Amino acid sequence: MTSDNSIITIEDNSFNDFVQKSFSILKKGIKASNSLPNNENFNYYSCFPTFNEIKNEQIKKIMHSMQCIVRKAEISGNIKQRDIEEKFDLLLESNDTFLDRAVSNIFVIMISPDIQNACMDEEAGISRNQGVELIVTQAKLTKKLNGCWNNTVDKQTSTSSDPTQTVRLLAGKNIQRPQLTFKDKIDNSPMPWQPKIKYKPNSIKPLAIYLEDDDKEVFCHPYEWELDKFEPSEEQLVKKHPIKYKSLKETPLIIIEKLDDLKIILNDLENYNEIAIDLEHHSYRSFQGITCLMQISTRDTDYLIDTLTLRSELHVLNEIFTKPSILKVFHGAESDILWLQRDLSLYIVNMFDTHKAAKQLELPFLSLSYLLRTYCQIDPNKHFQLADWRIRPLPEELMKYAREDTHYLLYIKDILNNALIDVANGQTNILKAVYACSTNICKQTYEKPVWSEISYTAMYRKSQKMFNNRQLYALKELHKWRDETARSEDDSTHYVLPNHMLLNIAESLPREMQGILACCNPIPPLIRQNLLKIHKLILKAREQPLIKTVLNDDIIRLSQRSQISNSESWIWTPHDLPNDMEARENLPCLLNTTPNSLVSLNQIKLKPGITIFDNSSSEDECKDSVIESCKKPNKLIFVSPFERYKRVQPIIAEEEKKEREKQEKEAEKIREQIEKTARESIVSTENTDSKSDKTSQNPKHFVKDSRSSNLAQNDDVVDTIVKSHMQTLSKMQNKKRKRQLGPEIMRSNKKKKERQKGFKKNTDK
Question: Which terminus of the chain has a lower count of CB atoms within 10 Å, N or C?
């Protein structure tokens, strides 16, 4: 840290010398500040009193110089009596004032009056340049991992330039709203949408537009009769050799921006039997959305039609689009059909949707990018999926992106057409099913988005938050105000007020207007314009009595229905999908490498996983089914309690029989041992008697009687021992029986005893 306390003044001859001198002083100060200890080292140095003294002296000098800077900026206040954050803000304010003074002085001295006027217009928000300023924003898909150990990995990922890992947002800074130049006025009212078609070419039934008899107020489809009678021609149901596409350089590109050019494209398209069509749409700065571009490709030419300038004149294309002899090829036409009806009054007859064909073939992925990679070996550039298609003139990158969507589509259609016939073993039933699905898509009619009293509940359910009645009232009123404002301003609801900001305002219920602005980052323009109205809605919500509210069952059911866009769709989880890929429905589980593992789920006959669901008419069949289920390790066996009791009884009888045999063998062994011991004792007594006979002169009959009496006594002892052993064994056996039979038999025995006692009491009475 420098000890030089001199004040810098402009005394040099030139301004450059002063700048160099000031930069050298700043470098010294930065080096000195970087050399100071930090964190643990600073705590260690602060233990020494000399370090603290030097530190306090330097702090006083720095504070004095900072106070001088603040005074030079003519800002009132003492910097010494403020916190660190307040000191920093005060220095920023002083620096801003210095820079403003310098810029104003240079502006007056050096710049010409014309440039001054242009800068003043730009400062005032007046745009005199009609050119569109493009803004390209890139975002990497890879995320930085946490941890200090990842420094080297992060450097490697930052240096790698993989174009597939970036997504570009191409937008315009000063795009004029195309709705202002439309001849037909956009109707965002909740009234039902009415078709604007005035002339019906290629008609079987005359044009008639009327409300249908359903509960909804929806007008009928003008070409409903023609679509019902449509059947694909024999040429479309036959295998053909796929016609290879031309390269983009060899294929001419025709841009149609004028009314005279429409006659050229009409004459050209009549010479073809197949065309590919796609649309580009914008929905952020429009309530219902705008069709910005139409791409049409033939085998020889690519067309780009500006649907913003020719919006009211493109209905003449119905001569081609409704002609049943010309096949129209789309990919994912559910939205395109509705956009054509709403904006251009165009309808489609005889369509082939490659998305439906890929679904019938059960391909692993259904996106157009996958079809291009698989059949054309082309990796499409999908960087500009979020581009603003209102930009005029269109950049070359967007034009190339739009051409790729239709340029290869006819060749892909030929391959899918042949594959559908091969899958059906030469039959055309699956191919006809694809045409039927495509025709049903063409029968769709556009409907306006309608707001209802329970529209906010879907967003509330998805947020998984618990609101009281005040917050729910604010959420409902804000949701209603957002819908009304979006309709009147012709902007999307997300542009007026995004969902997360709406929920944040309804949850916090700010008391002041600044609190409403604090809930929004960045602040939407329409929120600033209608801040007073929003503040009144929130104050009215705060005045509501605090009551615990419970949503009705009808509201819960309707909110759950609104969350499900398609009842047949599979549950999408982002963790199960690779990057930049789109998964299809009903994929088989590839757990086996054999080719037979790819079996359709529709061909698999479902079998119960538990045997209780098996239909068994008799006990033998039930036993056989149980034996078969035992052989299969994956099948769960279910046996009722009564069947389990019946099957356990023979097992218990066998165990009892084995125990009896075991007890008898043990009793025989004990008897043999006792007899053995008795014989040994008799032999020993005989030896003693023989000795005593020699000594004493007793008669022989007395000796025989004593021997017989001893043998009888020994037999009695053996019988008593065996009986006692058998009794103990029987007791143990009874205990085991009681344990095996369970508490139910014990209960039955108790009931019998109670009945006997009751019978005895009755007899005594």
Answer: C
